[in-house]
Amino acid sequence: MKISNLSLAIGSVLALAAPALYAAETANTDETMVVTASRSQQKLSDVPRSVTVIEKEQLSRVMDQSRNINEALSMLVPGMGTSVHGNLSSKGQNQIRGRRVLLMIDGVSQNNSFLDFGQELSSIDPQNVERIEVIRGGSAVYGLGAQGGIINVITKRPEAGETQYRTKVGTNFQEFGSDSLSWNVYQEAQGGNDTDQWRIGLGYDQRGGSYDASGHRLPSINNADDMDNININGVWNRDFDAERSLTFNFGVRHLEDNDGWCATGGNGVEGKPAEAVHCGAGYGNNVVGKTTVGPNNVKRTFSNYQLRYQDIGFAWGMLDVTGYLMTQDTETYTFGMKDKLPGSPTQGQTLYGHNSTDFDRYGMKLNISSMVSWADITWGMDVEQQSFKQPNSVGYYNNTPDVEQFAIAPFSQFASQVTDNTTLSYGVRYEYVRLGVDDFIVGNTHNNAGKAVKGGNPDISEFLINVGATHYLTDNHQVFASFAQGMSTNEALRAIRAGDSDNVEGAIQPIKTDNYEVGFRGVVGLADYSLAGFYSSSDLGSTLNYDETNNRLESTRAPERVWGVEATLGFDILPNLRNDNTVSWQEGERKLDGDNYWQPLDGTRIAPIKVTSSFIYDTQDYGRYNLNMLYSGARDKSDEITDGAGYAVQSFFLMNMGAYYDLPVGTINVALENLLNDKYMTPYAQAERNNSRYYFAPGRRIYLGYEVKY
After folding, report:
1. Number of Cβ atoms within 10 Å of the Cβ of 245
2. In the chain, how long is the greatest CA-to-CA distance?
3. Half-sphere exposure in the Cβ direction for 448 (13 Å, CA)
4. How many CB atoms are closer than 10 A to CB 329?
5. Intra-chain end-to-end CA distance of the chain, in Å
6. Residues in a beta bridge with 142
7. The pTM is what?
8. Three-class SS of 504-515
9. How far is CA 524 from CA 299, 527, 569, in A?
10. At what angle do helices 56-63 and 69-76 cross, to 10 degrees?
11. What separation in angstroms does the CA of 674 have from each of 679, 684, 700?
């Protein structure tokens, strides 16, 4: 470890935060507060960033007309890529403002920095969500991974009182085929007294298939169709007294394919969409009929456990300590693996089996928040250990070497009232990351199988800063500006596992991004608005490209810059009729080695212009209604927008609607997704043109649900 840099960083943070030792006050929670921007409670109107807060009821309405939380987020969050229908890898969807986003559950990262499968959105059970806070734009406040922003999912907390129950059942289907039928059930209970409160929830969801707007069956491999999932979540809280509490919460979600429809005949280059053929449970392309092995259903298990202690009477301020464990375990479907290892008994043969992944993350987060005469201060340290393994079922050398990563990061954040109308927010974080890789042999399926690679402990360390200001023009209007640095590591295992180098030194390289933003927001009568412009740059960005020669994804590193504009407008047309609108536009470029000019980033990174509009109408006695609309624009190749991938992106328009009716007991809801049955292809599928993922999105789907509380 680089002791000198680490000692300097810890010393700097402690010195900056020293005045907090002499004054501690609790924050005023009467105002609308957010926690994600600064790791402590802060008035939303004081945050010098673009922030989207999605409350439980708003998310529930959108989720009642959608089968995936990523589709709901694309409708609600400006700057976020339009959903990749049900795609468990969520490529394109997991980006905000053209850069990778950090997904957290209660402040704990769900991202895999070794190999970015992009499956973290699958770890969320929407029924367990209290609210979601989205920071749009890069940040280092929570550490690695937030180049494009942060999505922090805050789970439900229990309420004291008599035991309360909530039961929710639902079904959804399309008019094209009986195997599109899906159903779900969720049961929740909570209660407690002034000392101990608890809540537990259990859900099951069985999903059928999907059809496009013309009635053609869609592939289900690699997406959320033809799948079962079961989840359990809970929380227990003990209030020792008025100042101290201990909270334990957990969530486990298991997803498993129950059938298989494979993509065949697709040709992205020629614009020919793939068709679906029934390949059976556990089978991938070109494996149908193989008798040497049985089928292996795709399995994914996500789990999160947290133990949190809070003490608002702590001598140095409010003490907040969280210990956590997060795991992700997966098994792929059965597929062919050609043995390229010289001298192997099966050299040249193709054996059939599956890969597994075992990804673990555990650590501790320490926060201390205080108030002094000149600032609100939040300071502390994050310590974390990660590990990753990827064995296979056929007895080959592991596809990737076992790897571990240690990270430690002291930080300090400040918010100062510099004038009666101006708030200044600023902070520093030191990030130290060390990779651990043993000596290994390149796996059997690689072109240079059998090559010996020397392991090692490459590391990186960086100071990251942020500063921003919010100025109140009037009580109802603010202007804000900010500069924030974000950082993530490259997918080190993509380069390491291929054995392109004789050792692992230099395999871990930072992607450091400078993010600039300026904007306005406020309230005019019954309307609220925001307008923000942003610009981000990185000396060494990263874009995944498919290497046809070696049949693998490779990361292209190059200087990058991304810019754009986002706007929101909401107003109460009537006391019981609300309209909310968003507009997002972005562009980006990169400069490849040897080039003296900037090339536009392709459509797998840069989403086209997106416009959303929603209406909520509450008749009180005759039901509640909501209408959501989304327009995704075109990116024309003639404008050299898609120069990286070489493919244009066509526009489309979607409309979803829902209705809620209160019965003598409970509430019933009816919803229609893709109300107009528009035949379209998601922007990422159009831009990527991957033959196995190049097909249309689903047509109209009907939802029915019933919920009762007792």
Report:
1. 17
2. 78
3. 14
4. 16
5. 56
6. none
7. 0.91
8. CCCCCCEEEEEE
9. 51, 5, 11
10. 120
11. 9, 18, 5
Pairing of strands 99-105, 440-441: unpaired
- In a 13 Å sphere around the CA of 16, the CA atoms on its Cβ side amount to 23
Which residue, 300, 210, 211, 306, is CA-closest to 255? Answer: 300
DSSP state of 499: T
Query: What does the pLDDT look like over 19-63, one tens digit per residue?
Result: 333 333 333 334 678 888 888 888 888 999 999 999 998 999 888
Question: Read out DSSP for 426-460?
Answer: EEEEEEEEEEEE--EE--TTSTTTT-EEB-B--EE
Q: Scan for tokens 């105002």, then name that residue.
A: 31
> Residue 490 has what pLDDT?
77
Where helices occur in 64-117 by DSSP H, the ranges are 69-76
Distance separating alpha carbons of residues 408 and 4, to the nearest angstrom:
14
DSSP-derived secondary structure letter, 635 = B
CB 221 within 8 A of CB 335: no
Give the ranges where 517-625 is alpha helix by DSSP (H).
none
CA-based nearest residue to 49, from 534, 415, 511: 534
Give the model confidence (pLDDT) of 58-67 as tens digits: 999 888 888 8
Give tens-digit pLDDT for 105-159: 999 999 988 887 777 888 888 899 999 999 999 898 988 888 889 999 999 999 8
Element holding 660 (H helix, E strand): strand 652-662
Tokens in use for 643?
């120069």
**Residue 651: what residue type?**
S
Phi, psi of 8 (to 5 degrees): -60, -40
**Separation between Cα atoms, residue 75 and residue 612, nearest integer Å:** 7
**Cα–Cα distance, 115 to 677 (Å, whole number):** 36
Contacts of 214 (CB under 8 A, 6+ apart): 679, 696, 699
Tell me the C-alpha distance between 591 and 587, whole Å: 14
Q: Which two tokens stand for residue 109?
A: 């990262």
Look at the alpha carbons of 575, 577, 580, 581 in this order and tell me if their dihedral is positive or negative. negative
Mapping DSSP to helix (H, G, I), strand (E, B) and coil, where does residue 523 land?
Answer: strand
What is the average pLDDT across 89-95? 62
**20 φ/ψ angles, rounded to the nearest 5 degrees:** -65, -20
Listed in order, strand segments (DSSP E) in 575-650 are: 577-590, 599-600, 610-618, 624-632
The values of phi and psi at residue 470, to 5°, are: -125, 125
Q: Contact, 552 vs 497, CB < 8 A?
A: no
Residue 50 three-state SS: strand
Phi and psi at residue 19, in whole multiples of 5°?
-60, -20
Give residue 540's pLDDT band: very low, low, confident or very high (50, 70, 90): confident
Of 208, 223, 71, give the one whose Cα is nearest residue 692: 223
- DSSP character at residue 72: H
Residue linked to tokens 């193709």: 350
pLDDT of residue 15: 43
Smallest CA-to-CA distance from 110 within 428, 324, 323 is with: 324
According to DSSP, the residues that pair with 378 across neighbouring strands are 369, 413
Q: ∠414-416-422 over CA atoms, to 5°?
A: 135
Alpha carbon distances (Å) from 535 to 517, 540, 545, 548, 605: 7, 16, 24, 33, 15
What percent of the chain shows pLDDT beyond 70?
Answer: 89
Alpha carbons within 13 angstroms on the beta-carbon side of residue 514 total 7
Do residues 411 and 383 make contact, with C-beta atoms less than 8 angstroms apart?
no
Q: Which tokens belong to 665?
A: 């007991």
The two tokens of residue 150 are: 């942060």
